[in-house]
Amino acid sequence: MKAAWFEKFGDAKDVLLYGDFETPQPKHGEVLVRLYSSGINPSDTKKRAGSSPSLLKAGPVIPHSDGAGIIEAVGQGVPGSRIGERVWLYNAQFGRQLGTAAEYVALHSSQAIWLPEKTSFEEGACLGIPAMTSHRCVTADGSVSGKTVLVTGGAGRVGYYAIQWAKHFGATVIATTGSKRSVKQCLEAGADLVTRHPNAETIAEMKEFTNGKGVDLIVEGEFGGNLDHILTILKTSGTIATYSSMANPIPKIPFYQMMFMDINLRLVLVYVMPAVAKLQAAQDISKFLKHGNLQHRVAHNIPLAKIAQGHELIEKGDFFGCAVLNCE
Q: Are residues 148 and 231 in the same domain?
């Protein structure tokens, strides 16, 4: 099969290779998927750059955890009826070497989720990390029906889905953005109020919007950078569900302020979510896809052979939506 891989860490153009690679075979409990699209996420580019130093000890790495395609073969223990099924994939390269930047991938059947005909393979490759992370952030601590949810970075990959989940589950949604051109993205996703990233002025706007009550849940994409501001809008006993803190990776936490607010701090990483949370996310995603209730944004569709270009686009980060590889 054709595949892209790396054998050392470094810049995309220096270490990513493309060529022939041995086609995997499905083991017990696995399915073999002919991939048509592979999703690229920031965690993929970080791994390639060396964020997990032990990753290459077991050999070359075919990157990417997200993808979509058709099941062509099954291992023992998997019903033959799954052959021919359109699927989207998650966690394909987590804890192992061979991900979705290839024509084929073999992985556990539970990680290959039915994909309806109305959803393209490119859209299916956008789901794993962004849609599952956002689902966990919105749903992990109880129903948001009738509550107010703040999504920072609402135009981002995770934030865009978080707005949709929160609205579909009955919340009023405030979203923050970093630019005027991203306001439209948040409104299209369903946000009720869109303002700039948290600062004294925007917090005042949020307080006015909520009649001084504040918000029940904050889906936070820049925990360290925003913490001081968002604590002033969060209700007592509210929740901060955060999945990133890039600008300030070692934030200083005002412990007593947070303790006296009785807040819940949830750190979310899709790779290590409980199995029941992954299952619920996958079921909800499939249900919403079936009824056409999730919007997607495919910004770039790049040939597999030009994977380095895709990684560089993710690292620049100056676009809305996801970047995928065409694996056909």
A: yes
pTM as predicted: 0.96
Residue type, 276: V
Q: Are 103 and 164 in the same domain?
A: no
Q: Same domain, yes or no, for 143 and 60? A: no
pLDDT in tens, 64-113: 999 999 999 999 999 999 999 999 999 999 999 999 999 999 999 999 99
Three-class secondary structure of residue 23 per DSSP = coil
- Give Cα 270 to chain centroid, integer Å: 8
- Cβ atoms of 71 and 31 within 8 Å: the answer is yes
Q: Within 13 Å of residue 66, how many CA atoms lie on the same side as its CB?
A: 25
- Contact yes or no for 178/148 (Cβ under 8 A): no
Domain hosting residue 96, numbered range: 2-127+296-326
What are φ and ψ of residue 22, in 5° steps?
-60, 130
Q: 279 lies in a domain? A: no
